[in-house]
Every structure is written in structure tokens, then in C-alpha cells.
Amino acid sequence: MRQLLLLRHAKSSWDDPSLPDHDRPLAPRGQADASAMGAEMRALGLDPDIVLVSTARRTRETLALIEPFEEAPVIDAVESLYLASDQRILDLLHAVPETARSVLVIGHNPGLHNLALALIGPAAMARREPDALRLAEKFPTAALAEFAIATPWWGLEPGGAETRSLPVSARPPPARLLTRISPEGETLPVARLASGADPEEVFEFRLDPAAVPALLRHPAIAARREGRARSSAVSLLYHDAADGRLAEEGFLVVLETRGRSRLERLERILPAHGDRLDPSRPLPVLAEVPSVGPIGTAVLAKAAPAGVAPAPLAALAAAVGRRSDLRLGGPAPCTLTVYCGHLRTLAAERPFALLRLSAPVSARAEVAQLVRALAETLPLAVPHVSLGEEARALALGLPTRPLRRGAPDLGNAETVEDGAIRAIGHLALALAGAAPIAAEGQDPEGVHQSRVAIRRLRSVLTVFKAAISCPAMDDLKARAGEIARTLGPARDWDVFLTETFAPVQQAFAERPDIAALGKASLKARAEAYRDVRALIEGPAFRLFLLDVALALAERPWRSVAEEGDVERRRAELLDAPLEAFAGAALEKRYKRIRRDGEGFAALDIPALHALRIDAKRLRYAGELFAPLHGEKKSRRFLKALAALQDALGRLNDGAVAGALLEKVAGRDAGRARAVGVVEGWVARGAATARMDAAEAWEEFLDRAPFWRE
Q1: Given Cys at both, which of 221, 259, 266, 486 links 286, Cβ 3.0 to 4.6 Å?
Q2: What is the predicted pLDDT for the residue at 125?
Q3: 361, 200 Cβ separation under 8 angstroms
Q4: DSSP labels for 265-320?
Q5: Cα three-residue angle 534-535-540, rounded to 5 degrees
Q6: DSSP class per residue in 468-522
Q7: 1 contacts 150 by C-beta, under 8 angstroms
């Protein structure tokens, strides 16, 4: 819900008849009225994000006397607001940025009064609502009207507002104070925008540009659309500091031009360390101002990152195309916005399309239902990189930096539920970012990081099972297992070829049977990578990431029907502090690895394999919760645990190598001899690996668990 404040200038002076109307100042009474209105607005907490003020002297003096506001708003003195008609004021409001929560317009009658009447619409007059009748009577000087706006600014139309407070003058009664009157005649305080108003949130998805026409014609859209889509040309010009420091720190300045509207924004192109970023949510805009003067000067003066000079800025790339806005009705109205065009630099060009859905927080279930309906037939996807980062990479000829990578950082997580959402969201984005590299098949790190991300994601779903287990999350865990099983063979062949077979091939470079075994192994690796590519480019992987994003928005674990005590205990657990929960989870895994590792020297290969799984589970949980205790406390323990897992992993590599060799051995005698050579090489290293594992186990036992300190 947005807030519109219409303020007529205070009483002006006619003492100097030689002055042009534009230059008339406030009268003494007007000065007093404006000052009183400022005090009243502060008492009511009316704090606009943007102020549109006529350039007339009396409106500018009114603004000066109602200041200061709690937060400094963007102030735009608009020449065309002077004696503007109601339609002209409405046109200006249509160009207000969507991020603006509250807008104050300081202008003149009759345009301001006519706009207020148009916004409440004839239906309110027909019902003879007291507020509407009072507004119809007059809109005096220094009077303020407040409206709740349910639509985006661009969609504001006559009849599209709900009155919150109708014209209020701050002069003391009985002279000109207008307040609401109850049916019983009791004077009530001025009504404000309801503090419980449902805030809006934005979801963002990527789309194949060729699918945009089908999106706008989709039955799920057609059934809910209200009116025609508003379409306009748009350009987003991305700027970086001359030394590249802004982009390096994860920011860019964006100049957006739509018609006569020019706005500058300081946008994040990478999330800040420790910030929560749920999948399919846009990165924050740190500041937004009308564009005047040199690019970036005003917006960086308002919110410049530390250490970044406000000027000069250099243009990197432009996103040029069209923006289409469409209002969707139904039980939970929302706004659909599509950007479609090309990213362009001097040397390269790439098409893009992104979809944004703006809806009240209470409409998450309806948004999820709509997204799922669209995704059934359209290639809707969770973004793994921001559009600004794509622009930077295209301009510099560099790879894009994904939104997330590595292990989650839960240092800022407060509750168990917050920790679960942060961790799952981080790992879903890390998987989305690594997957395109895995699909290309050129860099083994793509499959490796994809596999680590999906394994960590399954580990998180297990760690938080007591809090978030429900059919939807259990289904996601099962689907994550299917993805992990597809990634596994490609990773196993990478490890075999680079770590196991490479030294054998080097030692026996002259033997043709070894070379033939190498070719067969490369062929098997290529087949495994074809499976990976088919997975990542197919609908199942894309829909998995979408369902993760929607589950984090819907929180299905909150709506599971359970017995009273069970439901209460789950709610208490979700809202409990994360640190105590983390300690219990780590302690459980630590006791298990200590138990399974007793009598280490006598453990056989299957038992050592089980111990490696224990180490991996404890390591994933330890890395997950380490930020709650600080890097210094956890570093030595996690380092020893990682060394143990690696040593046990080298033992396991021999078993994996044996299974892989069976697949390529065939019936050829020469290849069988080559397999025997490799198996002998692996067996020779197994004894050393076992000794390394024993030393790593003793080192691990010497490290105190960091969560106990």
C-alpha cells in the first residue's frame, strides 16, 4: 500500500499588487498555518519519500515551513506543477518510481482539489460518505488530504484511492480545523495510513526474450488482467567509478530513462556479506533521485559506499528495450512488469528479459500459484546473476560473478527459521550460479561446486528437519537427491582422470593400452557430462529452483496441520534463537563421529567410508554454524575436520576408481591389463592414505569443539 499526500499551499499575500502571481510570498497567517501543519504532520508520522512541489514562491515557502522531515526526502521542484490541472498532476504521479512508499504534492487549487475529488471517485459521493462530502465542499489553504493507494504509481486512476484523512488544516478550532466526525457526532483524531497496512514485496524471474509475447497472452495472465498493458521505451545506463571501485564493491549507478522521466539509482549488483537474499528477490536499491547535473553526483552524495569517490563515473553498458506494466486483479491484486531488450556495450550485445511481480506480503500463496502456472509452459527461471552484473561482465569481457557461492553465512541469523531460510536460499543460488558452468563441461569446477551446493542443501534440510519438515520440503529434499545422483558420475570421472589416472598415464606414457584406457575414460566422462547438461538445461532443474524459491516465500512448514502441542512446539522452535539449536545439532553429529571412529586402527574399508560420511555431515554443519561463534574459535577445529575428511576421501577414491574401471574394462585383454596397472597403483597408495587418515583422526580428536567454548 502506498501513501499520497496532497497539500495546498498556505495563505499567500496580496500586499504587493505589482508582483507576478508566481512570486507572491506567504502572508503572516499562512506562515503560521504552514508551521502548524508541519508540527501536525510530524506528530502523525507523515514522512514522505518524495516531495513534488510547484516552483511558485508560496509553495516553496510552505515546504520550507513544514520541514524538517524525519528522513530527508527527494525534493523535486516541478515547473509544470504551477497552477497545474488535475490531469497534469496525475501524469506526474504516474512517473514516480515504484520504490517510493509515500509522495507529498504541494500545489494549487483548483487542480489539487479536482484531483482529490477524482481519486475518491463518484461512488463515494453517491454513498454520501462524510469525508467525501466535506472534501467536495472545499480544499482550503494549508489543508492536507491523505490517500491510501493500492495500485502502482503508474496505475493510479480516478476512483483508485481510499481516503485516509480529508482536508486537514492545522489551525486551532473553531476557526478551520476539519476532523472526521463519527455518526454520533463525536470528534475523532485525524485518521492516518493504517500502520498495519499490508506491505508489498517484489519477486524477480528471468525469461527467454522470445517467450515474452507468450507470457503476456498466457491464460493465467489473461484471466486476471485489468485493462491493457502500459508499454514504453526504457533505457538503463550502467555506470561505474573510473577506477572500477564501485563494481568491485558490488554497486553500480543506473540512469533509467522513460519518456521525460530520468532517475538515478545506486543499485547493488552483488549482495552484501551477511545479508539475507532469498531466491527470486531483487537486490536492494540504496538510493534513488531525479537525475540533475553530472551522473551520480546526487545519488552518491546520498548513499555513497565507504571509500568510493562520488565522481567521475564512466558508462559501462546499457540495457535498451521496452518496459510493460500490467495490473492483475483477483483476490490478491498484483502488478506484473516485464523488461525486454538488449544489453549493449561498444563491442558486444546480448538479449535479456526479466519479469517482476509486485504483490502484498499476504498474497504470497497467490503469487506462487501464478508463478507455477506460468512456469508449466514458459521457461521462467530463478536469476543466478543480477542484470547489473551481467552488464559489467559484458562490458569488461569477464565471467559474471554469481549472487552466491560457497557456504552460507548465518552470522546475522536470529531465529531457527531465519537461519533455515538464509541457508537454503544461499545454497539454491549457489547451485544456480554453478550450474551453467557445469553444463558447459569445460571447467570441472562447475560440476564440483554444483555437487557441493546440492549436498550442502540436502544437509541443511536434514539439520533443520525438526523445524521445517513438511511434505513440500521433503519433496524438495528427494528431488535434490536426484540432482546429486546425476552430478555424481561426472564429478567421479573428473577426480579419477585428474588425480588417480593422471600419474599412471605419466608413468606409463609409452604403453598404448594405458592410452586406450584413457580414451575410454574420457568417453565415459563425456557421457556423464551429457547427462549433466540434459539435467541443467531441462525443465526439472529449473522447476526445482523455482519451487525452492516459492517454498521460502510461502513457508509451508507454518501451515502443516498438527496436534495442538506438536504445532505449538514447532512454532516455539521456529522462533527460538539459532545458537542453541545449532549447538545441539553439532553436538549430535560430533558424538556420532566419535562413536563410529572408536578403534580406528581396526576399522575396515566400509567402516571408514561410513566415518567419512560422518565427517562430511559434521563439516557441513560446522561450516554452516561457525559464523555464530566467530572464525577464530572455529578455524582450528574445522581445519582438522577437513583434513580428516580429505584423508578418508583419498581412501574412498580407490573404491570409486575400481567401480569406474569396471565400466570401461570391457573384454579387451589389453584394456584389462591397463586396468590392472591402475588398480595396482591405487593399492600402493592406499597404505599411505590409511596412515594419513590415522594421523588426521588423532589430530581431529585433539581439537575441542568450538560450540562448547
Answers
A1: 266
A2: 57
A3: yes
A4: EEEESSPPTT----TT-PPPEEEEEE--SSTTHHHHHHHPPTT--S--EEEEEEEE
A5: 125
A6: H-SHHHHHHHHHHHHHHHHHHHHHHHHHIIIIIHHHHHHHTTT-HHHHHHHHHHH
A7: yes
DSSP state for residue 538 in the 8-state scheme: S
The whole-angstrom separation of Cα 337 and Cα 232 is 11
Helices 564-574, 416-440: axis angle to 10 degrees equals 70
Q: In this structure, what C-alpha cell is assigned to residue 464?
A: 533443520
Count of alpha carbons within 13 angstroms of residue 459, beta-carbon side? 26
CA 432, 220, 483 angle in degrees (round to 5)?
Answer: 25
How, if at all, do strands 74-78 and 50-54 pair? parallel
Query: How would you label 545-582 residue by residue, b for 16+ Cβ within 10 Å and e otherwise?
Result: bbbbbbbbbbbbbeeeeeeeeeeeebeebbeeebbebb
CB 408 within 8 A of CB 427: yes
Given a contact cutoff of 8 angstroms between Cβ atoms, the answer to whether 528 and 490 are in contact is yes
Q: What angle do CA 405, 367, 372 make, to 5 degrees?
A: 75
CA 676 – CA 685 distance, rounded (Å): 14
Which helix H or strand E contains 21, and what residues bound it? none
Residue 152: which of 226, 78, 215 has the closest Cα?
226
How does pLDDT run across 356-389, given as a tens digit for each residue? 998 888 888 999 999 999 999 999 999 999 999 9
What are the tens digits of pLDDT across the range 249-305? 899 999 998 877 788 889 999 998 888 899 999 998 888 888 877 888 888 887 777
Question: Alpha-carbon distance 7 to 58, whole Å?
Answer: 12
Highest mean pLDDT among 73-87, 235-249, 478-492: 478-492
Burial of 162 (0-12, 13-18, 19+ CB in 10 A): middle
- pTM beyond cutoff 0.85: no
Amino acid at 608: L
Distance CA 595, CA 576 (A): 29
Residue 316 φ/ψ, nearest 5 degrees: -100, -55
> Do 354 and 205 form a contact (C-beta atoms < 8 A)?
yes
Residue type, 212: V
